[in-house]
Amino acid sequence: MTIPFTPWPAELIERYIENGYWIDEPLTDIVARHCADPVSASRTALICQQRQFSYAELNRLSDALAHHLHAQGFQAGDTAVVQLPNVAEFYIVFLALLKVGIVPVNALFNHKQLELRAYVKQVQPSLMVVSERHQLFKNESFVSELNAETPTIRNWLVEGDARFGTSLTEILMAQQKARGAEMADFTSTPATEVAFFQLSGGSTGTPKLIPRTHNDYYYSVRASAEICQLDTDTVYLCALPAPHNFSLSSPGAFGVFYAGGTVVLATDPSAMSCFPLIHKHRVTMTALVPPAVTLWLQAASDFQNYLTSLNVLQVGGARLSESLAKQITPVLGCQLQQVFGMAEGLVNYTRFDDDSWHVFNTQGRPICKDDEIKIVDEQGNEVPDGIAGALLTRGPYTFRGYFNSPAHNVSAFDTDGFYRSGDIVKRTTTGYLIVVGRDKDQINRGGEKIAAEEIENQLLVHEAVTNAALVAMPDTVMGEKSCAFVTTTDPALKAITLRKHLRAQGVAEYKLPDRIEFVAHLPMTPVGKVDKQQLRQTIQQTLIIKKEKDV
Ligand code: AMP
Ligand code: DBH
């Protein structure tokens, strides 16, 4: 059994194979390739607090878990929903699932009932992997609900203290002891098939899943490792959530594993968590979103000499201002690399030998010469370099369709199979992209994406809410925050009540509106849609007036 996905057309497949992008190896090769040679196998792959794992150990532990899962009857084509924090088990579980051909969705640790339910509903998993550290899994109530709603779920693996399901730690220990030299009688899905689902930031009512094949993802990992010049001396700090496409594959932990370097896990991107780790493990490279950069710049003076090993700071996920970009080398003492990527595929990097103008002012250029880029005006005609337009792309690691979403895919792609990224960009004459805006209904809250429609739907569930529109408002640290405009039948309705309501609906905390404005009615465009442009202007004006009053 394999997972259905929208394939690339035959002539492109041929080109991607011919040009060496698709090499017909499963993603598990990223770690397994180091294990034949004893010197490579003994290198440190992963550091998670006090625990260190060599490549051999990482491979062995994921083998052990794969054996266990296979013995339990799990097989290729099964799906799993995984939600783990930044711990070694994230990679061990991921590799184990890939080895058996179980296709996971890796949820973010700050996701809650709403998001997890949406993933479970879409993939109908047979396996759940969760952590006891998450508020939702401290007791069994949500587990029972999901079990009742989802007859496909056969097993729960729990990281930490298992109050339900099976303890992941115990399985790993028992399997390691029990395993002799038995041969594996399971294999990953073919490299041409779906390896896992990546999460889309989304712009629709329910979060969409992105099927990623071994072939396409492994190419993006190898090419990224090369562009970022990773080698066995690379020590990469994973400070963003481990499942994020940026910290997983651009070049991320997978790129570092591929190159034989070391991944150090941080629990979060704060300077307090990261600076001591950088110091202790002589970290050479890390990846951040812009708000974390602001915090690092502020904290750096209190941590003199902590960052001397750091060579490269990658910044992506949201637009980095030129002024922040220019402070990075003087204050943090490392090189900046801008990264503009998307879980759907296309990733752009500034290169290490670029001049400073490109590094400060552009979001880089695509990985591959076969990344095809179209920048179009509102009529769909391509615009010349230097003119802003909507970015569309297709290529050897850009997906061709969201999972089980035929209707949405019609509008998400053009008739040539180019993905409409929803970003407004300009191309320089040198082929670099500058992100200038967005035409998707999404808020980019410092790199965390919020689909407006998802929150509007949840606001509408409240009995006193008659209409709701979520828009971005400017914020100096986050870049953007969210503001909900709400019409109501209850003049006494309070913002705090609506926030409580959203929490009760199981909405992740970062998606809660930062501000709620009650209005008599929402402005409409001539075609009868909510005029979000006007709402963005309204909230901007309100903030300016408030600022003037404050000073
Ligand atoms: P996602 O679909 O959640 O993977 O988010 C990808 C989106 O994040 C892109 O389409 C952009 O809107 C945004 N993004 C990522 N990197 C950057 C960047 N360096 N500058 C501006 N926007 C970015
Ligand atoms: O924001 C993103 O999704 C992103 C940013 C940088 C990404 O997917 C990536 C690099 O691969």
TrEMBL record:
Which residue ranges does the record assign to the AMP-binding enzyme C-terminal domain? 454-529
Q: Record's PANTHER family?
A: LONG-CHAIN-FATTY-ACID--COA LIGASE (PTHR43767), SURFACTIN SYNTHASE SUBUNIT 1 (PTHR43767:SF10)
Is tRNA-binding a UniProt keyword of this protein? no
Q: Name the coiled-coil region(s).
A: none
Q: What are this entry's molecular-function GO terms?
A: 2,3-dihydroxybenzoate--[aryl-carrier protein] ligase; nucleotidyltransferase activity
AMP-dependent synthetase/ligase domain segment(s): 42-403
- Keywords of this protein's UniProt record, alphabetized? Ligase, Nucleotidyltransferase, Transferase
As recorded in UniProt, its EC number(s) are 2.7.7.58
Query: What is the scientific name of the source organism?
Result: Photobacterium indicum
**Where is the organism placed in the taxonomic lineage, from the top?**
Bacteria, Pseudomonadati, Pseudomonadota, Gammaproteobacteria, Vibrionales
Stated name of the protein: 2,3-dihydroxybenzoate-AMP ligase
Q: Which InterPro entries match?
A: AMP-bd_C, AMP-bd_C_sf, AMP-binding_CS, AMP-dep_synth/lig_dom, ANL_N_sf, ATP-dep_AMP-bd_enzyme, DHB_AMP_lig
**Biological process terms in GO annotation:** siderophore biosynthetic process
Specify the pathway.
Siderophore biosynthesis
